[in-house]
Structure formats: structure tokens, C-alpha cells
UniProtKB/TrEMBL annotation:
Superkingdom, natural source: Bacteria
Comp. bias (Basic residues): 8-17
Pfam families xref list: SsgA
Major site of localization recorded for this protein: other
Family according to the record: Belongs to the SsgA family.
Organism: Streptomyces bottropensis ATCC 25435
GO terms under biological process: division septum assembly; sporulation resulting in formation of a cellular spore
Organismal lineage: Bacteria, Bacillati, Actinomycetota, Actinomycetes, Kitasatosporales
Keywords: Cell cycle, Cell division, Septation, Sporulation
Protein name: Regulator
Length: 181
């Protein structure tokens, strides 16, 4: 039985025999093309951007506690930036993510700005303070402005400023809602 080949090898030999150019099965295989609607060419999705950032949590007594955060940006949510905080920072001792407008971050690097629960302002020339408010309390976090600027520049590589869209699913749904109007 030493001359017998494993089953997989026998199958491979059989499949090689099927690769005759005149064989209709082979031609079907060669002519296969993925189905694609001509009006919707596929575009590669840019990768999400993640950047670690050291920050300082400003306590109610104005002491500063070092915090490691992650800044995130994804083309699936192109108008927003996300800041992930580790479990030890929140009152509930769980990981917390805050999301707010990328335009708000850009404006807050140069002048005080804020909408609702998120406010930003420059703190001298080297730092930016991000203030986050919730029903559970308020947190002020100081970042190096250069770190936030670098993250913002990198986010513009993922999705250019002005190139943001709400996405085909949202736009298609909105179009169908407005179709009868």
C-alpha cells in the first residue's frame, strides 16, 4: 500500500486533469467574474486609525493623574473621533469611550469651543483640555496639543476633510424616504 497517495493528492491529480482548456468546466472557471453593480464600484475601505496618547486627568483638587488613552478614527464614522479611556479612570471602573465631532477637535486646538457634553480649549501653546460632562459627573483631560494635531492630520489621510459621507446605507434610506415627498 506504499504506492497509494493520500486522498487529497488523488483529488489534486484529478483536478489537474480537468484543466483542459477545451473542457467547459475549465472555461467557466476562467471566465468567472465577481458580480458587481456597475453604478457601485467597490473601493477599498481605508483602515481605521488608532493612536495611543498620554494625557493627564485633572482632579477636582486640580491634581493631575497620568492616563493612557487611545484616540481612534474610522471611515465608518467619518465625522467623529473617539477617545477610549481605561477602566481605572471611570467612576464605574469600566472602559469608557467618548465620541465627538472631528471638526470640534480641530476647532478646539486653536480656540475654546464646545457643544453639549464636550468642550475643548487650548491651555497655553502646548496643551489642549478636553472637558467631558455626563449625568454621572465631569472630567477634564489635558493632552499635548502636538499629539492631537498629529492624530487629526492622520485622520485626514484616512478620510480627507470635506470627503466625509454618511454612507450608502444611510443615503439610500434617506433617498427612499424622500422619494414620495
Amino acid at each position: 500500500m506504499a504506492s497509494e497517495h493520500p486522498k487529497g493528492l488523488n483529488r489534486m491529480k484529478k483536478s489537474k486533469r480537468l484543466k483542459d482548456p477545451k473542457d467547459p468546466k475549465h472555461q467557466t472557471c476562467l471566465n468567472w467574474r465577481p458580480l458587481m453593480h456597475p453604478a457601485q464600484p467597490t473601493m477599498p475601505t481605508p483602515p481605521a486609525l488608532e493612536q495611543r496618547a498620554r494625557a493627564r486627568l485633572i482632579t477636582p483638587d486640580y491634581d493631575e493623574v497620568p492616563v493612557r488613552t487611545t484616540l481612534r478614527y474610522t471611515p465608518d464614522d467619518p465625522f467623529a473621533v473617539h477617545i477610549d479611556f481605561p477602566a481605572g479612570v471611570s467612576a464605574d471602573d469600566v472602559n469608557v469611550t467618548w465620541a465627538f465631532a472631528r471638526a470640534l477637535l480641530a476647532e478646539g486646538l486653536d480656540r475654546p469651543t464646545g457643544i453639549g457634553d464636550v468642550h475643548l480649549w487650548p491651555h497655553g501653546s502646548a496643551h489642549t483640555v478636553v472637558e467631558l460632562r455626563s449625568p454621572h459627573g465631569m472630567a477634564m483631560i489635558r493632552f499635548d496639543t502636538s499629539t492631537l494635531r498629529r492624530f487629526l492630520r492622520r485622520s485626514y489621510v484616512v478620510v480627507a476633510l470635506g470627503g466625509e459621507t454618511l454612507g450608502p446605507a444611510f443615503e439610500g434610506g434617506l433617498a427612499s424616504l424622500l422619494d414620495g415627498v
